[in-house]
Here is the input.
Amino acid sequence: MRREFLSSEQQKKGIHFDPRTKLLLILIISVFVLGGAGGNAMYFLRPVLSLVPFAMLISVGRGFHAALYIIAYTVCYVAQLILLPILTGFTNFLVLILAGTFCRFLPGFIIAYFVVTTTTVSEFMAGMERMHMPSKITIPLSVVFRFAPTVLEEAASISDAMKMRGIRFGGKKSSKILEYRLIPMITCSVKIGEELSAAALTRGLGAPLKRTNICEIGFHFPDVIIFILCGVTVAWAIFSAFSI
Amino acid sequence: MIEFREVSFSYGQNEQTCGIKNINLTIEDGQCVLLCGESGCGKTTLTRLVNGLIPHFYEGDLSGEVWMDDKNISKMPLYDTAAIVGSVFQSPKSQFFNVDTDSEIAFGCENLGLPEQEIRHRVKRTVRELQLESLMGRSIFHLSGGEKQKIACGSVSALYPEVMVLDEPSSNLDAAAIQDLRRTLTVWKKQGKTILIAEHRLFYLTDIADRILYLKNGKIIKEFTQHEFKKLSEEERHKMGLRSLSLENLSFSSAYVTDLEETMLLKDFCFSYRTGLDALHISNATIPKGEIIAVTGLNGAGKSTFARCMCGLEKRCGILEIKGRVLNWKKRLKYCYMVMQDTGHQLFTESVLDEILLSMETEDEEEACKILKKLDLLDLKSRHPLSLSGGQKQRVAIASALVSGREIIVFDEPTSGLGLHHMEEVAHSLRELRQEGKTLFVITHDPELILSCCTHVIHMKNGEITENYSLDRNGIKQMLSFFQNPIKEGSL
Here is the structure.
């Protein structure tokens, strides 16, 4: 029933990474695996980077997800290596598209999933503040994290109401579904937003002071390993770009 | 000391809530003041003047001054007021800024830039004082309304304000949560805080409030001490439009004997969410047809899941047998209708008339007007549904249920946050629906509503119907004993 952006409960087991480390990982994997930056020079590093999501999932005790991921990734990778040279025509094209897409998208997708499910909103905010993000960016972001699940809940009860009145695709008034959904959605979002702001203001939000954040974050040994890995990747990419 | 000096305020023209006129009021330190009166009497406005939301958040015409000791609240920025006045609001779902309970309690202190060590100390102390230990480290999306309200109180408390302002804090709470709220208020009172509370439900406050102000049309027209207030006769209370002052001597007109000749049968109403929570498991139940059935129980007992299954909103859940007809979930989607707690969710069109026409199999304006007339809505037929008052919206939702020929109508907390007269209006419409032969289910935490219209009670706990009785003399006793002693139920 409940959908959330970012986790709202503290991660209970496994290794804790700093939210900044996690953001860096998303960036590096997106650039080099998803974006394919570095070209052929990254041929060997790319599979190594793709192993990172696997390691991360293991580190928080999600062995099952980790196994699923590594199997899916290996199958696609091997398919690219073995099948592509023997296949021709349409089947070649199909395998290239499917396996290629998976190999590129899966690591980025999994690492994002890992970050989103293991970082609490407060950790994320603390991380942003440590990176000296201005509060003009961090406060709206935290509102989104807070507001989105509530709006989704409202949307769910509006669809219930539509179901009860028999308004559905293929039913009566299907052309007006969007309008019927949007109008109550907008009015209740405005109402909730207003109440939310009033409550936050009476708790002192917006004071022209430096906000304290009591969430404990910081770099530890596991973060250092990730940093070294990322550093090596970037250095390798730069080095190979120049040596050509 | 809080002082109102000749304060008048009116909202912009579009607001339905009316303002206040010429208020002169002095509240001494440590007093607990209860503001009561019917909806729109200005009690919420008064609380907003104390926490500074008026004039800094809600705009309008303000004259006069509100002082706290030597500070003029109306001129102070909100973040300064935040340190001396704490506010708790009506709706538990929209007064959280964080998504986990720990951060929420620290939130106010963080905003004021207090040192980290100090914040940790304050959070710890607040948790101990208000007994919040079991709620720490939780996601607010997994808390019940009552638990959220406790955290809201904690979050305010950690700021160590001198004044607490509460605006209808019990509207969405069940009986057990109200007792918790009462305990929190007692703690604050012992700490010597000044408490200002606007409320409809009065029974839990009669022993706490030192001073009771009765407002009407934006003016304070009567003032009572606790002693005087308790001695108020039933007749006077009724005339003032106030909810009852205690659950012990609730009056009821006549005990009712349910006609058990016509019944309906519930089979296999079983449902569990993917998380495994809030499950419903009713394998078999017989419920009278054509009655007004109160569905009682604490939050999380499965009442809303029951309502959703009844209306066919959960796929493949349960069979309803009624007069030899067997209705599965798909058929119930057309046979039952739910009037939601926030009726704004179920009104889609641009006018009240369109709303009714939308619900008809074949659009027939004459028929629609007939229904509107019956529900006293004919004059409003070209108004936009979302511009109506709460009670009118509710009646529009009822009208669309009637016009589409629904036999069972489920009401989800129809009287939360309503004063006596509005509650009686709801009870009146419910009774009229029953006379038309409809079967009504009313999910409610309001014993007064049950006494004024319901005829049968099903009590739920842990997803099961634990009691199923008609509201005769014994039934009334049984029902009231739950509302008087909900904690016993919770701890079992």
Notes: Chain A touches chain B through 61 residues (CB under 8 Å). Residues 34 and 104 of chain A are 5 Å apart (CA to CA). Chain A has a mean pLDDT of 85. DSSP finds eight helices and no strands in chain A.
